[in-house]
């Protein structure tokens, strides 16, 4: 691959997904001098509040939801700075809540946003930045969160529309993104993490008598790409812990995650679904083949 600066665009649902799912990839790309663009669709205001120091209780006080949205947007901006993200877009849609919750049906929820509106905004961003690589979730949203599934659907629609000048002609010059990936957590690795947590006495799906390991993550055989993120693992954790409202302030928890991460989060795995050249699994660089 040439040293020419390339552009990576990631589309996520909530603040903190950029760090947990693609923090290593973003930081590595920035270190290589590439341009990175993060789009976060919602404010994540339905996330639990794990940091008591924030004194937010959205269950009791609805006004705290709006405050949590502000807190999470600030955390996202700081995490993006840690990852050296070049451009950050917060689309500002409202969190739809976990799968099967009442808020899924709310008119303000991201899942109920006008698809043309969301797609049009993404097309504008794609045409402006002309990314060489786009990463989003798979059609199951990774683990079924409605906002992740919506992010997937809107991104895939935007990729098609961005390449076709008859769609959203006001949104700029068409751009056909050469490489597209889904984030993918390998089933075998997910099982390993759950077993370790189970061993430590933590609650995991393994306790469920109907637990089906085939429902977990991405089948290993579909994973095309594994990027070694160990050189930037420290920055990934630093970015993730910037989301204090979600990660809490416990030093012990941070220590545990950092320690466990050395074994369980050495790689960020992906599934390539569009490439100018056939992928040779396991590919180790998302920018390969883009000469
Ligand atoms: Zn999320």
TrEMBL record:
Transmembrane segments: none annotated. InterPro entries: GlcNAc_PI_deacetylase-related (IPR003737), LmbE-like_dom_sf (IPR024078). Pfam families: PIG-L. GO terms for molecular function: hydrolase activity, acting on carbon-nitrogen (but not peptide) bonds, in linear amides. It comes from the Bacteria. SUPFAM superfamilies: LmbE-like (SSF102588). Gene3D superfamilies: LmbE-like. This is GlcNAc-PI de-N-acetylase. It comes from Candidatus Entotheonella gemina.
């Amino acid at each position: 691959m040439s040293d020419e600066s390339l552009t990576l665009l990631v589309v996520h649902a909530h603040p903190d997904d950029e760090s947990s799912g693609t923090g290593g990839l973003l930081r590595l790309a920035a270190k290589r001098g590439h341009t990175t663009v993060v789009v976060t669709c919602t404010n994540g205001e339905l996330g639990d509040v794990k940091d008591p120091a924030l004194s937010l209780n959205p269950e009791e006080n609805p006004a705290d939801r709006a405050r949590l949205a502000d807190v999470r947007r600030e955390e996202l901006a700081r995490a993006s700075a840690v990852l050296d993200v070049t451009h950050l877009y917060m689309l500002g849609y409202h969190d739809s809540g976990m799968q099967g919750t009442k808020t899924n049906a709310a008119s303000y929820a991201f899942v109920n946003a006008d698809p043309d509106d969301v797609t049009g905004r993404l097309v504008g961003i794609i045409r402006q930045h002309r990314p060489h690589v786009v990463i989003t979730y798979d059609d199951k949203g990774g683990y079924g969160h409605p906002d992740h599934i919506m992010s997937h659907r809107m991104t895939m629609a935007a990729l098609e529309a961005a390449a076709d000048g008859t769609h959203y002609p006001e949104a700029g010059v068409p751009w056909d993104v050469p490489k597209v990936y889904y984030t993918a957590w390998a089933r075998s690795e997910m099982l390993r993490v759950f077993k370790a947590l189970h061993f430590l006495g933590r609650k995991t799906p393994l306790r469920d008598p109907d637990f089906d390991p085939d429902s977990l993550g991405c089948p290993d055989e579909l994973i095309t790409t594994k990027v070694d993120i160990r050189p930037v693992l420290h920055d990934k954790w630093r970015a993730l812990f910037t989301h204090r409202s979600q990660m809490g302030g416990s030093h012990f928890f941070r220590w545990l995650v950092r320690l466990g991460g050395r074994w369980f989060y050495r790689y960020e795995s992906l599934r390539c679904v569009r490439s100018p050249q056939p992928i040779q699994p396991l590919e180790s660089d998302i920018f390969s083949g883009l000469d």
